[in-house]
Design goal:
87% helix, Alpha-lytic protease prodomain-like, mainly alpha, elongated, 6 helices
């Protein structure tokens, strides 16, 4: 598991840099949202590595932090969408689409590596959910690039960013609930 998390950490950190540059170059809110998510995921993988061999209470606390981070990311993206809806213009679809496909390849690979851990404790489940959500988000960003290309408007990009925020908020709620249950379990000494 440790090796998989290190690979995921390195790939996510690299994709953060690529998507920040690509999002700024193309003007895509959904790419910038995905870049912020890559940064959050890299931090989450580092946190998972730090608590991997610790007891249930520490792993659950780490998962709670990750769940809260996913929720904050979702709220940030919704704010960015509102801002872009008022001031934004259509992003450049070719850069947006190419980077989305690269990100999809990275996230699908990481999700496949983490698939067997999807039913683990809240800490491991949160790692898999992050990767799964990212792969879904990358498909959506690629579709938004096609939508922007076809319509010449910002709306496909913003709609995908809203959907990505919804995924983050949904995963956040799921991880926070499981982490809260595991914290209570660990504190009761039943673990």
């Amino acid at each position: 598991m440790r090796r998989v998390l290190w690979i995921a950490l390195i790939l996510n950190a690299a994709m953060f840099g690529i998507e920040i540059v690509g999002g700024l170059k193309s003007g895509s809110v959904s790419l910038l949202a995905d870049a912020v998510d890559f940064a959050g995921d890299a931090a989450n993988y580092a946190l998972s590595l730090a608590v991997l061999s610790m007891g249930l209470l520490w792993r659950a606390r780490a998962a709670w932090i990750k769940g809260a981070t996913m929720g904050a990311w979702g709220a940030f993206v919704l704010g960015k969408v509102a801002w872009a809806a008022v001031l934004g213009e259509a992003p450049e679809p070719f850069t947006m689409g190419a980077i989305a496909l690269l990100a999809l390849a990275v996230n699908a690979g990481v999700a496949a590596m983490l698939f067997s851990f999807r039913e683990g404790d809240a800490n491991l489940r949160s790692v898999w959910l992050c990767s799964r959500n990212d792969a879904i988000g990358n498909l959506a960003v690629a579709a938004a690039a096609l939508g922007v290309f076809g319509t010449g408007t910002v709306w496909p990009d913003l709609l995908v960013a809203i959907a990505m925020a919804g995924l983050a908020l949904s995963a956040s709620i799921s991880v926070l609930r499981q982490a809260r249950s595991e914290i209570a379990l660990a504190r009761s000494g039943i673990s």
